[in-house]
Amino acid sequence: MAHKVALIRGDGVGPELVGAVETVFKAANVNIDWVEVEAGLKCVEAGKPIVPEETIAQIKELGIGLKAPMTTPIGKGSVSPNVTLRKKLDLYACVRPVYSLPGVKTPFDGLDIVIFRENTEDLYAQIEYMATPTVAHSVKLISEFGCERIIRAAFEYARKNGRKKVVGVHKANIMKIGDGLFLKTFNRIKEEYPEIEAWDNIVDNQCMQLVTRWKIYDVLVMPNLYGDIVSDLAAGMMGGLGVAPGANYGTKCALFEAVHGSAPKYTGMNKVNPMALLLSGTLMLEHLGENEAKANIEGALRATLEKGIKTYDLGGDATTSGFAEAIASELK
Ligand code: NAD
């Protein structure tokens, strides 16, 4: 039976990227029945919330979705559709693997790290107000419950996937209470996984070490804001935003999306790299247990890159759709 999966086509370059994923999935005979759900700027233009309640309900019911990037409208009171989805679906674990790809030249050969970013708390709780007419107050919300579930998710992932090391990333030397709670929870939970080497790093030191000693790192786990920044840094190490995939997991739902945004200046140009969304799609296939299809698509993608077929961001001249067709022609 086909897997029913919610699909958000997104804003900006989103629909072009979804088109590329559809081309490859169709050629790979992937057994998916896409259920299109609405969200994004089109909803706002129609006077609806940017993520309508019906969309939340549909994704909850299906339990799984693929989402192209969406634009956050600028202006007072505008909410991020991405943050809204993560919160309303309680997608607490943002998982971003970064690894070296054939034909994608970077100074970071042998890169193979998985970043676990807490997705619902921290400064992203969006609790902020003007304390006086000239002083803003943004609240950093950290709970033991929130720390425990993301840290446990990282250790469980390491155990299940034969990963040997988990590092907790924080700034508890300065934020002794909030990040202190994250660190205390990390130190408690690591005791339950004696086979995994675990230590902690301060986030600024972690950034420096990522670019100087990337080979010693395996799984990293951190609160929301550090995760946002460190995973973009790591996406750059992998080859840029055009190649970095991501997944968001909750207790009942999983939503797969590229790390990058809607790149509005490239809308309609058939130019951007569909790899990040395609690799997010293969993470989704793994979640669905479609491991053969995942391996087939990733193999075809590697073969395409090895032939030197690339989009502009990797120094090539392939179009979004042309790159997808090249991958499709490499499928077994
Ligand atoms: P962005 O990631 O959209 O683009 C930044 C730059 O990265 C682009 O100008 C482009 O040079 C490059 N880039 C991004 N995707 C690429 C791809 N697939 N191939 C090649 N190059 C690519 O970030 P931004 O410009 O800061 O944000 C644009 C909009 O996207 C904003 O409204 C922002 O809120 C939103 N956003 C959404 C998500 C999401 O949906 N998860 C994530 C980040 C930003």
H/E series, N to C? EHEHHEHEEEEHEHEHEHEEHHH
* CATH class annotation of the largest domain: Alpha Beta
| CATH fold-level assignment of the largest domain | Isopropylmalate Dehydrogenase
Total strands: the figure is 12
Main sheet strand line-up: 2-1-3-12-11-4-5-10-8-9
Tell me about the largest β-sheet.
Answer: 10 strands, mixed
Number of domains: 2
Sheet-strand content, in percent, reads 15-25%
How would you describe the shape? globular
CATH architecture of the largest domain: 3-Layer(aba) Sandwich
Structural class comes to: alpha/beta
Mean pLDDT across every amino acid position? 95
The low-confidence runs, each spanning 5 or more residues with pLDDT under 50, are: none
| Termini Cα gap | 22 Å
Could you give me the name of the CATH homologous superfamily of the largest domain?
Isopropylmalate Dehydrogenase
What are the distinct ligands in this entry?
nicotinamide-adenine-dinucleotide
The value of Rg in angstroms is 20 Å
Provide tags for this entry.
binds nicotinamide-adenine-dinucleotide, Isopropylmalate Dehydrogenase, ten-stranded mixed β-sheet, 12 strands, alpha/beta, two-stranded antiparallel sheet, 2 domains, 332 residues
